[in-house]
């Protein structure tokens, strides 16, 4: 499995099929980029200027909302993931 470094977090993006009121399924290029994902792996945390390490505020298994155009898409073992910095996360869905 992938292991993120520093304050990076690996997400499995949750893509939702979107339908119009009339039942027409929208093409993927007509939809907005998904903004929710499930945390798959978390890095060790961010290092402050004074050398102190700050632990990440999320853990594997959390569902999060992230900035619309954040992160880098990667493929690993035929699965697509999104690697984001912790400060790209907006909220944890409870």
Automatic annotation (TrEMBL):
Subcellular location: Cytoplasm
Predominant localisation class: cytoplasm
Protein's recorded name: Co-chaperonin GroES
UniProtKB keywords: Chaperone, Cytoplasm
InterPro entries: Chaperonin_GroES (IPR020818), Chaperonin_GroES_sf (IPR037124), Chaprnonin_Cpn10_CS (IPR018369), GroES-like_sf (IPR011032)
Tagged with keyword DNA repair: no
CDD domains in the cross-refs: cpn10
Family affiliation: Belongs to the GroES chaperonin family.
PANTHER family the UniProt entry points to: 10 KDA HEAT SHOCK PROTEIN, CO-CHAPERONIN GROES
Role: Together with the chaperonin GroEL, plays an essential role in assisting protein folding. The GroEL-GroES system forms a nano-cage that allows encapsulation of the non-native substrate proteins and provides a physical environment optimized to promote and accelerate protein folding. GroES binds to the apical surface of the GroEL ring, thereby capping the opening of the GroEL channel.
Alphabetical list of SUPFAM superfamilies matching this protein: GroES-like
A Pfam family assignment: Cpn10
Underlying gene: groES
Assembly mode: Heptamer of 7 subunits arranged in a ring. Interacts with the chaperonin GroEL.
Domain of life: Bacteria
